[in-house]
Amino acid sequence: MVEHHPVHNSEVYLLGLTPRLEVPPPSPPSPLTARESESSSAIEELDLDNTGDDFKEELETDLLAKQRLSGAVHVLNTEATALRDLTQLYRTDAAAAQGFNEAVGAITRHNGKRGKLVIIGVGKSGHIGKKLVASFNSLGVHATFLHPTEALHGDLGKIGSQDTVLFITFSGRTPELLQLLPHIDAALPVVVLTSHARPDACELARRRPGAVLLPAPVHEPEAVSFGVSAPTTSTTVALALGDALALVAAREMHPAVVPAVFARNHPGGAIGQAFQSRPRSIQDLAVSLRNIPVWDPATSSRQQQATGSDVLMLGYGSPSGWVRVGDAVASPARIRRLNTAAHATTPAPAILGLLVERAEWIGVRADTALPRAAEWLAGLLASANCGEDAILAVTDENLEVVGVLEAGQLLDHRE
Question: What is the pTM of this model?
């Protein structure tokens, strides 16, 4: 007996479709071969070893550069953070603010007429002290540096009876300073620039009752920040606080003339050259009367009185832009306001606001420092009926007018 089972095969039959012609599949493309007339180049052997060395060296160089920059940014950011914290301390802490105020008072108490600031430190603090001495002196505050060891061997004579002493010590217990302290006259003001925020935490301040404390703390130990206790953040904050002390004291002793004092004490180098070329007093800005062209009636064929066009033409040819008509002057700003169409033939004295007679000039000494003169003039203009086009008469020691100046030019030099 035959058994019937389903037939299994892999063919798929689609019913109801139109039969297609059987087309063989396309042959694969033939490989390209060089023509006999052409030369074929040999394929270079791939050298994985050399390629790896070059790539590895490039990666190592790039990694080293990134590590260097990362280290630099870390140091800069750490020290910037310390300075921000120091700023916040003196902005919000009453004790720190009082200490700074008392320190400035101690330095300026004789107004520079006698006494000096003696800065004492050792090691890195000593180097900071020497830099601050240079800054104080260049700003017109007499200062000197005293090494504590040399002081005990004769240099103690540097300290005078009218002096102020500034100790710089991060720890507040530097042995050399503690050894010197008993030999400092008890009547002299002593300022201690240290990391401690309170006198009872600073050994030097505890041994000198009444000492003024200038806190210069850091937000974390340098060993934590950099893995080494090298003075870095601590010297940065000490230097910044010392600079603040120098500038504030100088401004109090030499109000409105600190730049002039600094320029006088720093004539050399690029800074000196910059100050020499920068105007510092009224005479540096003034236009000499001798250099201002004067209207001559002989040059006018029309009439014996200067007109608006005469002043305009004369001002156009004037190196300074100023014009003199008799005892009156026309400044560049006033000439620029001329309406040439309306004032061409109008007599100059009749043109409102063009000429300023000598009697209306505002007198100021030629040797007056610019910041001081600018502040004085700003107050004057606020109370008087005149504007920035007012004419300043610059006078010498005999009160003779040697030059003129527009008020607006001087106001630009306010600090």
Answer: 0.56
